[in-house]
Amino acid sequence: MTRIIFKLSFTLVLFLSPLYALSIISEKQKVVIGVLAFRSKADTLREWEPLAQYLDKQIPSHDFEIRPFTYQEFNDAAARKELDFGFTNPEHYVYFSVKYNATRIATLIRASMGGNELKEFGGVIIARSDRKDMTTLENLKNKHIAAVDELSLGGFLAQSTVLLSKGIDIKTDGSVSFTDMPHDKVVYRVESGSVDAGFIRTGVLEKMAKEGKINLNDFKIIHPVKVDNFPQLLSTPLYPEWPFIAFKETDPLLANGVAIALLSLKRGSEVATYAGYYGWNIPLSYEGIRVLMQNMRVTPYDQTPVFTMNDIIRKYVFHIIISLGLVIALLLFLALRLRNLTMSLTEESKELEEQIRIRQETEHYLKRIANVFHNSREGILMTDAKKLIIDVNEAFSELSGYSREEVIGKTPIILRSNRHEPFFYEQIDHALESAGSWRGEIWNRKKSGQEFAEYLRIDSVRDENGKIESFIGIFSDITEHKKEEEQLHRMVNYDPLTNLPNRNLYMTLAEQMLGYTKRKGSKAIIAFLDLDGFKQVNDRYGHEMGDHVLKKASALLEQQLRLSDIIARIGGDEFVVLLSDITLDDAETLLMRILDSLKEPFEINDVTISIGVSIGVTLFPDDCEDIDILIRHADAAMYRSKEAGRNRITYYDAEATSLILKIRG
Asked: Which residues make up the CATH 3.30.450.20 domain(s) of the chain?
């Protein structure tokens, strides 16, 4: 039902927005966008004003205004209901979502100083480079720290979380001065020596250095962290970039229009480049940040529930009854024992013999259980109710690399890999609490650091009162099985030479993309590409050289395509491309770039190779809506390109049932 409502709403936005704009174009409504100024307000206003102008053009019925704020100013404006939209950091969005029912409609894709696309950011811990006593996280204990705000993820929370993992609570094990926005204030306080260290978000230090405000050599990074493809200085894990949010009172039709305008903004456009970012993405999940704030008990999760005596009685009434029952049972037991003392010595002797027999049987049973535990080929791990390890078997040590002495008293967290989100482990805890057991596949890490897949069974052991007293985990290594599954998946779906999707995977992806394109009411292009001169390369230089040419051509094709486009190799030197959500003019420009890139000679093993490409194009849904027929149309159009002299583009004309040749370059 929710999906149907969403589709209807989206359709109404697309087709009724023009009517809505015309109906009120005579009286433009002011729309206020609050922006958290993590640099100066003047810089913030200058950088984001082009976005307001862009939205004015996209939604001419409204007049968009940018207002830079500090944290307190932002909160006050939201409380007075002066804002329609906001652009702020993730933890501030969580605060607004709880307090004012704000919702995220897009996530920023930021650009680094080197031009990289960044969908995540983190925190940086800085100190003066001449501070020899400030090199590790432990050195921050009992020091004076400058930070932006208690609600700043990149300017306080991310760093505090890293310190807590080392057993350091910076609020109690030191002193913190909050400077409020911009982050530059923290940098200047560290530079002046008025504080020992500072917390700032990623990118601030590099930008200030580029602006000539500081010298990078005057600073050092404490606890530097390296993350693949992340180019900025970093001290913490990464978190989703800033969201663009709509407040509860904002007109839903206007909010949908703004969301579409943001997502339609071309990446790397002048509007985005001016503000130092690439564009916008569909809203990411911020649940991990919400959990982080709850764990750290920061606003709005800083209120401790008040418990009364009645609450305690209601919560522990079962335990109170059980305790009273045990006392009564103990009194009855003592009375019975007193009576039994009057029995004859013969009866006592028989009871003693029976107890000895039962104990001997119990000992034999426990020995059998111990043999199973120690001789099992599966790893077995036992913990107490607090999940502290109390015993492991030999197979556990063989599979994990940890000896028994190394893990006793620790939690199974030492085995965790980085492949699962916190929510995954929360689901396991919930299953153990509600159902008493959990079974499934999980990735863990050996002592050597090597990750391995295992099939894990966890069962809770409860006492006679139903309270959990221990957990037992039994696992087996299925890494090779997972590798075989992955290899089979690649064999079925990918071309082994170029690593591009094969026809099987392309058909699946194309069906999904065309379905989405049809629902959105936009256009798509299917292009069939065949390399010109490839047979001559094979005949002259051999098939090994031909394979190199195919790899080079595949790489050149991928470089010209957008991230949203789909390309597959479906035959020897044949490729098929799907360009979704694109105009015919933009498609022609992109296809021309493909023609030009494959015209250029390139060298392989000191041999200069010259090839070209013939392209056939058909349109969705104009020519047809069936993907198989569309590919055949594009294939037929490609053959006409070959017949017309190669190295050109031919479009399939569905109405005239003929092909129109368009020659480019």
From this structure: 376-482
Give Cα 621 distance to the centre of its chain. Answer: 34
Pick the closest to residue 428 from 466, 390, 393, 475 (CA basis): 475
Nearest 5°: phi and psi at 50?
-60, -30
Assess contact for 233 and 124: CB atoms under 8 A: yes
Distance CA 243, CA 108 (A): 6
pLDDT over 50 (residue 175): yes
List Cα–Cα distances, 562 to 272, 284, 587, in angstroms.
Answer: 17, 20, 11
Q: Cβ contacts of residue 477 below 8 Å, gap of 6+?
A: 399, 452, 453, 454
Q: Which of 538, 531, 528, 554 is nearest to 616 (CA)?
A: 528
The encoded tokens of residue 596 equal 């030009």
Topology given in CATH for the domain delimited by 376-482 = Beta-Lactamase (3.30.450)
Mean per-residue pLDDT, 306-324: 63
CA atoms within 13 A on the CB side of 135: 3
- d(Cα 347, Cα 339) in Å, to the nearest integer? 13
pLDDT band at 417, cuts 50/70/90? confident
Angle at 589 between CA 593 and CA 568, to 5 degrees: 60
Q: Are 627 and 593 in contact (CB under 8 A)?
A: no
Is there a contact between 66 and 37 (Cβ–Cβ < 8 Å)?
no
CATH 3.30.70.270 residue ranges for the chain:
494-662
Q: What is the pLDDT of residue 489?
A: 81
- Residue 342 — pLDDT band, cuts 50, 70, 90? low
C-alpha to C-alpha distance for 96 and 462, rounded to whole angstroms:
42
pLDDT at 1: 43
pLDDT in tens, 476-532: 888 888 887 778 888 888 998 999 999 999 999 999 999 998 999 899 999 999 999
Please name the residue that has the structure tokens 């996280």: 137
How far is residue 47's CA from residue 31's CA, in Å, rounded to a whole number? Answer: 18
What's 120-239's CATH class?
alpha beta
Residue 26 has pLDDT above 70, yes or no: no
366 pLDDT more than 60: no
- Contact present, 619 and 637 (Cβ < 8 Å): no
- Gap between the Cα atoms of 489 and 359, Å rounded: 56
Residues of the chain with CATH 3.40.190.10: 23-116+241-296, 120-239
Architecture of domain 23-116+241-296: 3-Layer(aba) Sandwich (3.40)
Contact 246, 87 (CB under 8 A): no
Distances (CA, A) of 68 to 74, 334, 368: 8, 77, 72
Secondary structure (DSSP) of 243-309 = EEEE-TTS-HHHHHHHHHHHHHSPTT-HHHHHTTEEEEESPPP-HHHHHHHHHHT-TTS-PPPP--H
614 neighbors 648 (Cβ within 8 angstroms): yes
pLDDT of residue 10: 45
At the top level of CATH, which class does the domain 494-662 belong to? alpha beta
| pLDDT tier, 579 (very low <50, low <70, confident <90, very high otherwise) | very high
**525: part of which helix (H) or strand (E)?**
strand 524-532
Count of helix runs (H) and strand runs (E) in the chain? 21, 27
Q: Between 365 and 132, where is the model more confident?
A: 132
Q: Please state, in angstroms and rounded to a whole number, the distance separating the CA atoms of residues 152 and 46.
A: 23
Q: What is the pLDDT of residues 419-459, one digit of tens each?
A: 899 999 999 998 888 888 999 999 999 999 889 899 999 99
**Could you give the C-alpha distances from 153 to 48, 126, 144, 442, in angstroms and in order?**
21, 16, 19, 30
503-520 and 2-23 helices cross at what angle (nearest 10)? Answer: 50
Copy the structure tokens of residue 115. 């031009």
Q: Is 599 in contact with 647 (CB distance < 8 Å)?
A: yes
